[in-house]
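To whoever is on call:

I kicked off a structure prediction for a single chain this morning and the downstream step that reads the tokens threw a length-mismatch warning. I double-checked the sequence; it's 404 residues and nothing unusual in it as far as I can see. Pasting both halves so you can look.
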Amino acid sequence: MKKRLLAMMLAVVMAFSLSACGADGKSKPAGNETAGSQGESQEESTDMNIAMITDSGDITDQSFNQTTYESCKAWAEANGATFTYYKPDSDSDEARNASVDQAVAGGANVIVMPGYMFAAAVVSQSKLYPDVKFVALDVSAGDICEKGVGEGYDYNPANWNVADYYNTDNVYCCTYQEEISGYMAGYAAVKLGYKHLGFLGGMSVPAVTRFGYGYVQGIDAAAKELGIEGEVEVEYVCGGQFYGDADITAAMDTWYGTKNVEVVFACGGGIFTSAVEAAVKVDGKVIGVDSDQAPVIDQNKEGLTVTSAMKGLAATVNTVLSDIKAGNWSNYAGKIDNLGMVSDNPEENFVQLPIGSTQWGDGFTEDDYRALVKALHSGEIKVSNDITAMPSVSVKVTDYGSIK
């Protein structure tokens, strides 16, 4: 009863304060779109009221937030659902929790939250709003335990019962096997002839590290197959943030311009802008992340993007929302899935390279990619997800730590 009363009070208060996101980027609800204008493509309507909340970025990051937003919006338009997105006022747990409050006050009964930063919301808000279904993308048991246990957490979720720290009845979490798509990107790059490669991560959180360590493993595997281990070199660094700036661009200028790095895997939201800015000066190349980033990266220079190490965010959103609509929430409640290879068909997997925009060549064709996917799916090729230390490889790897 107290929880219902709180929600009602929030609804009254927020009704007077909600307004569309303005030029200052402050959050408040940033969009409210209800299906109905899509006409022929609209299916039978649903009473689902979907909210998506951004993490520290926004829906124009050409990465995690934007892909999630576009997928939620498209699904809502096709299924007659109400959809709104919210951008928190600041990069903090408190601001993200406040956006959940806003979403519930606005009538949301399904809230999609992309990124590990929402672990605190999973812990607190799932208990506060038991009638709301929470879909937390890229939130792991370790993320939840860190926020739930607090001081004294030993960063080994196996030592804790994660279900003690959130309401499992109304939360679905999933993570992705980033190491596999990172592996595919690194393998492809070396097969395509690149021998001096770089990895520019955002913050050194587990997902970014899995991408990076998988990338190094793929580079090493391809170099061994070609017998050129001694000729291949990898520069490795994290920016310490998920956006590019002058300092990070300067570091990339050194890589591309002085060290003669040929291609950089830019892995961390908007941090790709610094790699792109430096690459275009010397005809370098870039590898995108999370989604197919070629459309935005190649606006800076045609053919700039070699490939993108993708996560199946759209597939996850579409599958889960469709099952909620069909009344199958019980298939998801309380689960923390680790999504990866499910098929020999590349486009059915939750980790993949984009077939349409990858720069295929004689050294690595689309058929070669399909063979690689088959070997990964069957287990013939195994990629380690251990992030406790840089993988032991034959190629030279120079780890610079973090720029900031």
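Update from on-call: the warning came from a stale cache, not from the record. Cleared it. Sanity check on the structure: Residues 34 and 82 are 4 Å apart (CA to CA).
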